[in-house]
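Researcher: We plan to redesign the surface later, but first we want a full-length starting point. Tokens attached.
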């Protein structure tokens, strides 16, 4: 489909970069709100280790299993569904912090 289109790939990569940057900026802002003073470094370390470390490892492991045992399309679909679930959880958590 669009995997052969250079324009589609460029647009997708630009959107990926923008959404990643926005997510990271929002996450760091939340860390600064939740961890004050000398605890901010620990909060950032916790964020990095859980999201990029553990989250990346678990995501890579299960996407590899899905890719090999189901299909590449299913792997991307599952990743999209997990992302939507994470968005809903984050939205609820941020809303709870601001109440």
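Model: Full-length starting sequence:
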């Amino acid at each position: 489909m669009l995997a052969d289109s250079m324009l589609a790939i460029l647009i997708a990569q630009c959107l990926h970069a923008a959404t990643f940057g926005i997510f990271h900026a929002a996450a760091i802002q939340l860390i600064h709100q939740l961890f004050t003073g000398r605890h901010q470094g620990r909060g950032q370390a916790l964020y990095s280790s859980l999201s990029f470390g553990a989250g990346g490892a678990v995501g890579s492991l299960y996407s590899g299993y899905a890719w090999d045992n189901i299909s590449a399309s299913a792997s991307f679909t599952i990743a999209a569904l997990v992302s939507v679930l994470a968005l809903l959880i984050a939205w609820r958590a941020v809303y709870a912090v601001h109440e």
